[in-house]
């Protein structure tokens, strides 16, 4: 092993360990007091039921073990002068994080009303899991946190995302043994294959084995130590075991294990940075085995509590008179009179154990990433414009054009190293291949000559076939003050529905916290979309992510469906510059006719919705019908239907409206991007039929527009139809094709009488001809393949 950096190596004295134990007792006391107490926070008065919350909601089982880790990380930070954040994965038990940030002083700095005195202690206890207070899990309101307690399974992914391009940062990650059974966390042990010891920081996983979930044992706690060691060794980790329940012995073991782990991390990084040795190392980790509910009540009402699943939530329910004395005995077992002074403040000799300033876990700038965020250097997106001499005159692939823009973002920010792409092995498939002219894929495993674009310093994170990992890495990267985007097949973005929802909730709360600085938006590009699945079929069709995100808070979510490359470039530039949003872009990667010049695209995207005058013929008159479209394929089919109608029935006055910003359809009272009723009526009229071709499920458009005056709207979208077939047949099966759209226009224009009957018959004939042709030739009709806008 290479020589470790110069750090004091004297052993931890018993006296110091006793102080750490006292600090731990203070954290445990506050963890328990937050669960129960409304008043009398240090039991300086006789405890009565008036001092107890009427409804006790929260978790205890994981709290003492996490307090134990926090106390020991404080020592490590001070000893190594280490830049370190802590990510708590077990989910609930947020009282532990609050207790520790309060003891170190951060909490009172962020929330001056919760002072380091008796009144502050009272408020600290009352607010926990209480109406008008704070949640029972680690949350955005918790200083030092970047991992929501409801995000069970993503702690390690967030940790690795946090340390990419952060060479001096260590992310200590407490992994709950219940959490370890989730699919994302089980996969996360492979993330060490993507860590570059030369340019990245380090993740120190601490697997907290306390044996139980809510009411069941945990898998990893019930296998032998030998099997567990083999498992982690096989995943590329070097595990150190800290096991037991006797506090002083455990303090000694934990201090030694952490020193060993930190020394190995420093040695690995020193070797890589000084010797340019990028051989993938065995990174250290810690397996901490403690009783669930450690130091809490042993037995309540004849049932074992400590060391059993019953310690998971509230160990004493306070529904019997004798429980008051049990609670008092438990709280006093921590001897708060030895830990806090007369004014209720942690005594100075214990306060001195905590780091100071930004070295405190609760105030580390990486856990409030907006403090570190720097704008990207961006080229002018208009320089990548597709030349469109007239609508439909040229074809291009939207994602290929975007790839050139993104490539140059990498080049302009090479020195800053604050931008990455994330996605599960789909960068080439999604036509972003131009980025490999500027960077490579991140890969720290074995490489073969037959591989392509792999490098230790690659900035494209697509070498892991896991949506959970890639999206979790991106979240950790953003939350610590950097930029990036996630590109995925549209159908499989659904894998991370929950993750995106949790991030949206995180941002919603952060927007209400003035001390949380704004971070770069979570940008999601959904390509390989539902309308062209020639060889993938039914399994790859699901546009429902739009519905999922549209239901989140309007001050957070934005949904864009650019109809061509120039619109995509404009939308992407807006999204990558934005802050504190979840931006979703649904795009095409296939050759498509291009509709707008860059100048037109900028105007269109800035407004988010608009009449396409060049496709309409109602200028100066009332339209007979409004033909609206949203998405690349619905736009194509709408324009094709317009050409049929204008040639066959030129007397029909048609207004064509294209929607880029989906939330424009919602009233401005519901979404900041929404149109006012007057603006909406000016576009869509108050009563004319609206034939709306939509990219996704038709119900979403109805949900967004049901408050509007014009209820004469008929939406056509994906109907869960289609398998291995031609691109046009996908549209036919879901009835958003040009022939069905023409028929529906005629259906909702009764003033035509029988004048439309012959055209309806022609459309029916075309639909039959289409089916016969694709079954014989395996491709779409020539008039569909070769169709061009020519009006």
Keywords:
791 residues; alpha/beta; Rossmann fold; 36% helix; disordered N terminus
Work out the number of β strands. 22
| CATH fold assignment of the largest domain | Rossmann fold
Relative helix content: 25-40%
List low-pLDDT spans: 1-9
Tally of structural domains: 3
Text of the CATH class of the largest domain: Alpha Beta
The CATH architecture of the largest domain would be 3-Layer(aba) Sandwich
Mean pLDDT: 95
The biggest sheet amounts to: 6 strands, parallel
Rounded Rg: 30 Å
The CATH homologous superfamily of the largest domain is called: Thiamin diphosphate (ThDP)-binding fold, Pyr/PP domains
The structural class is: alpha/beta
Using the alpha-carbon principal axes, give the shape: elongated
Tally of helical runs: 24
- For the biggest β-sheet, the strand order reads 12-9-13-14-16-15
Quaternary state of the chains: single chain
Organism: Roseburia intestinalis L1-82
Protein name: Probable phosphoketolase
EC number: 4.1.2.-
Cofactor: thiamine diphosphate
């Amino acid at each position: 092993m290479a020589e470790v950096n110069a750090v004091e190596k004297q052993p931890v004295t018993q006296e110091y360990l006793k102080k750490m134990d006292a600090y731990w007792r203070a954290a445990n006391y506050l963890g328990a007091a937050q669960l129960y107490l409304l008043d009398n926070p240090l039991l300086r008065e006789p405890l009565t039921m008036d001092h107890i919350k009427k409804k006790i909601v929260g978790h205890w089982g994981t709290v003492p073990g996490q307090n134990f880790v926090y106390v020991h990380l404080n020592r490590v930070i001070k000893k190594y002068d280490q830049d370190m954040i802590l990510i708590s994965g077990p989910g609930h038990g947020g009282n532990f994080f609050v207790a520790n940030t309060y003891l170190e002083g951060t909490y009172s700095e962020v929330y001056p009303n919760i002072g380091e005195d008796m009144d502050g202690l009272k408020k600290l206890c009352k607010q926990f899991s209480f109406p008008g207070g704070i949640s029972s899990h680690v949350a955005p309101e918790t200083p030092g946190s970047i991992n929501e307690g409801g995000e069970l399974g993503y702690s390690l992914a967030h940790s690795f995302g946090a340390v990419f391009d952060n060479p001096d940062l260590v992310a200590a990650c407490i992994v709950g043994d219940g959490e370890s059974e989730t699919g994302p966390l089980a996969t996360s042990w492979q993330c060490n294959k993507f860590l570059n010891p030369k340019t990245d920081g380090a993740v120190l996983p601490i697997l907290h084995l306390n044996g139980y979930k809510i009411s069941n044992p945990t898998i990893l706690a019930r296998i032998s130590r030998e099997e567990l060691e083999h498992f982690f060794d096989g995943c590329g980790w070097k595990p150190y075991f800290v096991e037991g329940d006797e506090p002083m012995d455990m303090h000694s073991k934990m201090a030694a294990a952490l020193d060993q782990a930190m020394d190995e991390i420093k040695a690995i990084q020193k070797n890589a940075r000084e010797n340019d040795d990028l051989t993938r190392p065995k990174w250290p980790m810690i397996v901490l085995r403690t009783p669930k509910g450690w130091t809490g009540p042993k037995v309540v009402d004849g049932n074992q509590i400590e060391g059993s699943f019953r310690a998971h939530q509230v160990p004493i329910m306070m529904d019997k008179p004798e429980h008051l004395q049990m609670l008092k005995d438990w709280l006093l077992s921590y001897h708060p009179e030895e830990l806090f002074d007369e004014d209720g403040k942690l005594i100075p000799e214990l306060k001195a154990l905590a780091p100071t300033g930004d070295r405190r876990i609760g105030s580390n700038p990486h856990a409030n990433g907006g403090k570190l965020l720097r704008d990207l250097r961006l080229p002018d997106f208009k320089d990548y414009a597709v030349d469109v001499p007239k609508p439909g005159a040229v074809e291009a692939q939207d994602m290929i054009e975007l790839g050139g823009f993104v490539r140059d973002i990498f080049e302009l920010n090479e020195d800053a190293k604050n931008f990455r792409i994330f996605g599960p092995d789909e960068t080439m498939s999604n036509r972003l291949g131009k980025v490999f002219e500027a960077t490579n894929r991140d890969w720290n495993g074995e490489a073969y000559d037959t591989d392509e674009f792999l490098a230790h310093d690659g900035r494209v994170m697509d070498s892991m076939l896991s949506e959970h990992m890639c999206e979790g890495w991106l979240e950790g990267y953003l939350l610590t003050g950097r930029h990036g985007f996630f590109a995925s097949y549209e159908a499989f973005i659904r894998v991370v529905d929950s993750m995106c929802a949790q991030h949206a909730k995180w941002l919603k709360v952060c927007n209400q916290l003035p001390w949380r600085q704004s971070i770069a938006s979570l940008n999601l590009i959904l390509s390989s979309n539902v309308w062209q699945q020639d060889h993938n079929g039914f399994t790859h069709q699901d546009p429902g992510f739009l519905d999922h995100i549209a239901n989140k808070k309007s001050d957070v979510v934005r949904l864009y469906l650019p109809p061509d490359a120039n619109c995509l470039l404009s939308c992407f530039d807006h999204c990558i510059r934005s802050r504190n949003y979840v931006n979703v872009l649904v795009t095409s990667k296939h050759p498509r006719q291009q509709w707008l010049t860059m100048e037109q695209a900028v105007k269109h995207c800035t407004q988010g919705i608009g009449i396409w005058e060049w496709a309409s013929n109602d200028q100066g008159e009332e339209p007979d019908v409004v033909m609206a479209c949203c998405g690349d394929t619905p736009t194509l089919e709408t324009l094709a239907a317009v050409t049929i109608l204008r040639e066959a029935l030129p007397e029909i006055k048609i207004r064509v409206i294209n929607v880029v910003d989906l939330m424009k359809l919602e009233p401005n009272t519901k979404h900041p991007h929404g149109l006012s009723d007057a603006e909406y009526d000016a576009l869509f009229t108050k009563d004319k039929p609206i034939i709306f071709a939509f990219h996704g499920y038709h119900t979403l458009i109805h949900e967004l527009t049901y408050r509007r005056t014009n209820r004469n709207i008929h939406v056509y979208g994906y109907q869960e139809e289609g398998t291995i077939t031609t691109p046009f047949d996908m549209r036919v099966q879901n009835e958003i094709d040009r022939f069905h759209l023409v028929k529906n226009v005629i259906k909702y224009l009764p003033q035509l009488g029988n004048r439309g009957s012959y055209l309806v018959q022609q459309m029916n004939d075309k639909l039959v001809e289409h089916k016969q042709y694709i079954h014989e030739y395996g491709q779409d009709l020539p008039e569909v393949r070769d169709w061009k806008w020519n009006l």
